[in-house]
């Protein structure tokens, strides 16, 4: 839709009577974008069809939306804000909309996610920083939204909103395989026999390891450190999926090791 239509929808949302009895509100905006804001369907270099980010906050501020005064307003924005390529996959930049090539997800920037407090009762979480693109998978969708949903599902019961956002932001700092490479020695010297066996069972069950590889790790003649070293090396060699399974298992089943490896906050 056009940016005027988006603005009208936001104003209609701000005017809803239900806000009087609500205790908070979530607003999710997903579109192509540029640094200035979210693009409407007719955007081009000649046609500035853009809903400015400042306008979004203005529409929902205390003056224009008094029924949400002092109530948390959470704004999730999935739209790139430039053309610099901070990550990989398919980007949501207008400039790249004609190029939908899929690139392997390898190089992540630490500032791929940014949180900004605009007012005391606002919190905005954007999928990219100014001048950077935001990335999506052509089938799975937005990497930012995928990680956001995953962290809500896992931590909504135990963490406040800022902590969940921090976890999402942290998840972009390094790909999982690079995390394990950096923590390899700590893992080798700290992992317990029980965790090794649990990892082997899960990796075998998910067909990441084969029977021969599992038997090598469980070799009775190998020392505990040798088993850990072989396991972590083969997981890293297997790639991102194996590393994700390994990290997820450690975080769920061995909080002590997860803390040592810096996998939890």
TrEMBL record:
Q: Name one Pfam family in it.
A: Peptidase_C14
Which segments of the protein form a coiled coil according to its record?
200-227
Gene Ontology annotations of biological process type: proteolysis; regulation of apoptotic process; regulation of inflammatory response; regulation of interleukin-1 beta production
The keyword Transport is annotated on this UniProt entry: no
Record carries keyword Ligase: no
Which segments constitute the Caspase family p10 domain? 112-173
Q: Which domain of life is it from?
A: Eukaryota
Domain named CARD: residues: 172-265
GO molecular function, a single term? cysteine-type endopeptidase activity
CDD domains hit by this protein: CARD_CASP1-like
Residues forming the Caspase family p20 domain are: 4-84
UniProt record similarity statement: Belongs to the peptidase C14A family.
Q: Which PANTHER family match?
A: CASPASE RECRUITMENT DOMAIN-CONTAINING PROTEIN 18, CASPASE-1
Q: What name does this protein carry?
A: CASP1
